[in-house]
# Entry
Amino acid sequence: MIKVKMLVQTTYNGQILRQGKVYEVAKDTAERWHISNIATLIEEEESK
# Structure
């Protein structure tokens, strides 16, 4: 799972995902949305 910030409003698994909000979705879905400019990936610093 990875966090994304939505660039547009869409539906996913029967739920409405709002533009500008942050959601956690499957990594493969997040990557597809990023390529299609539906969402941006949120990078978290966990490497310290």
